[in-house]
Design brief:
There is one protein chain. 72% of the residues lie in helices and 2% in strands. The protein has 480 residues and is mainly α. It has a two-stranded antiparallel sheet with strand order 1-2. α2 runs parallel beside α9. The protein starts with a helix and ends with a helix. About 2% of the residues have low confidence.
Length: 480
């Protein structure tokens, strides 16, 4: 048995004899298991609730009686965002962005009912999930377990004795690191079990799971190296503990909280009220379909009359009101899409700046990797909004076309007692409108999105490993 293995075995033996160490390790293991089970149960319950409400909304829409198509445009429909399987491990931004939308004509609504808006403010500081435990609490445990690994030998005077007796500083550091890395691996075992549970679920993708396993493994290995490096550079265990706690506070707690605020101040995002006011002003400039003298819609009317070769709206073979609704929805949707693109451009700039802090905080790099691989990051939310808008537009335009093709213009304008019944169409038409089906991201997209975070983590790990070389030389001089 070589010196590295002997030192690692001795360090593990000391940890095992320390009751505080054993209790802390057991508590963290139980906490990780509890977080995995709680998060899994929570996400399963959310998924079942959303599926139930989605089916109920679809049933209520198709169960509507004979109506005028434009009434169905305003009746609208609810859709819910289905969660990817890895959301049970890292829910990402879902608690903040909302999970349901009401789709209707002439409006592009935002997502609603995020957990943060309905729960305690403590949700803002992190949900109890396996991702939160490994990102925040596991490094703290490694700090308490390993802060005295090398500093303790220096304080007791055994460091010089080992070096004089032929134990190299390299073997000492690697032995201590091996012991702490074994503990880190044991800490990650419950999370690995959670990944195996998720892997067996429908829709789970092997590629993103493998990236997450690699990322979290690199993160725990990095913290093991950081702890050993600080312990080797500081003369007393107490000083090592204080330095590591300060480092953990800055890298894991402070920077991940401050970075989004800096990004929000650097790239200001207009409020919802400001956006709504701007949209209404632009809509007013587009034109007023109810104004017979409006230049834009006057030109549109003339274009339609020329297309069908008639002189009056009443002579058209289709309902002009329906054509007007189709054109109006096309204009407003184009405007809504333009404002949505502007908003997401700002949000993406904020996200890039926040992710850039991963250069100085491995916790931010891991969070970026974790949410991207799980499909619960900003891009995943954007895909949901884009697909929801595409579905809304197709649904509304199908109803508008029904008004143009199946409702007579004369009946649409009539005010007599029986006009209301004549302008209604059969409820069978609602059955022809397809239900919303969310298309999740592919394996390639998720893996590609997580690669920048993984690259930052591996760069951190490589830098920490290289830092062992000068620290080894410094430690070797303690023999003199």
């Amino acid at each position: 048995m070589n010196a590295i293995t002997l030192i690692a075995r001795d360090e593990l033996r000391l940890m095992r004899r320390n009751r505080v160490t054993v209790i802390a390790f057991a508590l963290l293991t139980l906490l990780t298991l509890a977080a995995a089970l709680i998060s899994w149960s929570h996400q399963t319950g959310i998924a079942e609730t959303r599926a139930r409400f989605q089916a109920q909304a679809a049933q209520e829409f198709t169960a509507q009686p004979d109506r005028h198509p434009h009434r169905m445009v305003h009746f609208g429909n609810f859709i819910f965002r289905p969660l990817p399987p890895l959301a049970a491990f890292d829910p990402g931004v879902d608690a903040f962005t909302g999970n349901s939308m009401f789709l209707e004509g002439h409006r592009q609504n935002s997502a609603n009912f995020g957990d943060v808006r309905q729960s305690s403010l403590l949700v803002r500081f992190g949900q109890l999930t396996p991702a939160f435990v490994l990102q925040v609490i596991a490094p703290l445990l490694l700090v308490f377990l390993g802060y005295g690994a090398v500093a303790r030998e220096r304080e007791r005077g055994t460091l010089r004795q080992m070096l004089v007796q032929g134990v190299s500083a390299r073997a000492l550091l690697l032995g201590k690191l091996l012991a702490l890395a074994i503990v880190a691996a044991l800490v990650g075992l419950p999370a690995l079990a959670a990944f195996l549970l998720i892997a067996g679920q429908p829709g789970a993708l092997a590629g993103p799971i493998a990236v997450m396993v690699l990322g979290y493994g690199a993160y725990l290995a990095l913290w093991s190296i950081i702890v050993i490096l600080v312990s080797a550079l500081v003369r007393r265990g107490r000083d090592a503990l204080l330095a590591l706690l300060a480092l953990w506070t800055v890298l894991v707690i402070l920077l991940p909280r401050v970075a989004p605020d800096i990004a929000a101040q650097t790239y200001m995002l207009p409020t919802r009220l400001e956006t709504d006011i701007a949209i209404q002003q632009d809509l007013h400039r587009l034109g007023d379909a109810h104004n017979p003298d409006d230049p834009f819609f006057t030109a549109f009317r003339q274009k339609v009359l020329r297309h069908y070769g008639v002189d009056r709206i009443e002579d058209l073979p289709v309902n002009y009101n329906g054509l007007l609704a189709v054109e109006g929805e096309k204009l407003t949707s184009r405007l809504f899409d333009d404002y949505a693109r502007r908003s997401f451009t700002v949000q993406q700039a904020q996200s890039r700046l926040t992710d850039g802090f991963g250069i100085i905080s491995p916790a931010i790099a891991l969070r970026r990797l974790s949410m991207a691989a799980a499909g619960t990051d900003l891009e995943g939310h954007r895909q949901f909004l884009a697909q929801a808008e595409a579905y809304r537009y197709a649904m509304v335009q199908q109803l508008n076309e029904l008004q143009a093709d199946t409702v007579r213009y004369a009946d649409d304008k009539a005010k007599d007692a029986g006009a209301d019944q004549r302008k209604r169409i059969s409820a069978d038409h609602w059955q022809t409108i397809p239900q919303f089906r969310f298309q999740p991201a592919t394996t390639g997209d998720l893996v590609e999105a997580s690669l920048p975070g993984l690259g930052l983590l591996l760069a951190w790990l490589a830098f920490a490993l290289l830092a062992l070389l000068p620290v080894t030389r410094i430690l070797q001089k303690a023999r003199a």
